[in-house]
Amino acid sequence: MLDGELISMENVVFRSYIWWCGVLTLKMFAMSILTGLWRFIKATFANPEDLMSPKLKVKFDDPDVERVRRAHRNDLENILPFFIIGLLYTLTNPSTFLAVNLFRAVGISRIVHTLVYAVVVVPQPARALAFFVALGSTAYMALQVVAAAF
């Protein structure tokens, strides 16, 4: 495939990459909404101007709110690198089967990670397995990008 064709809607790998980027972006937006929802439910606000009553105080230690915030931070630490590496990996003209399934692995495992960490808390190793599937897939793509650069 010619370089100009790698980033086009005719390229199945690129189409899969942008689809999963869109899904994961929506997922991160949902985490923002979930954090706000938990703050409202638990009356746990981080800013004085958000307090809905003079009886409330700024609070940073609600375990439910903090769990969702940690899950969201984990998304930022892991999904954003995938956005960069996934695009660079697309430019290496990888096997369609492998690339599409790596993108799926990252996307599905990040969704599962959120579900077992912040929505319905499931004991380990569920969260660790979801985390390492995405990390391993992204690391593999990064190694392929580095290898392709030489």
From TrEMBL:
GO molecular function: glutathione transferase activity
Subcellular location: Endoplasmic reticulum membrane; Mitochondrion outer membrane
Mode of membrane association: Multi-pass membrane protein
Gene Ontology cellular component annotations, sorted alphabetically: endoplasmic reticulum membrane; mitochondrial outer membrane
Main enzyme class: transferase
Transmembrane segments: 17-38, 79-96, 102-122, 129-149
Reaction(s) catalysed (UniProt annotation): RX + glutathione = an S-substituted glutathione + a halide anion + H(+)
Enzyme Commission code: 2.5.1.18
Keywords: Acetylation, Endoplasmic reticulum, Membrane, Mitochondrion, Mitochondrion outer membrane, Transferase, Transmembrane, Transmembrane helix
Family, similarity comment: Belongs to the MAPEG family.
Protein role: Conjugation of reduced glutathione to a wide number of exogenous and endogenous hydrophobic electrophiles.
Self-association state and partner proteins as the record states: Homotrimer; The trimer binds only one molecule of glutathione.
Protein name as catalogued: Microsomal glutathione S-transferase 1
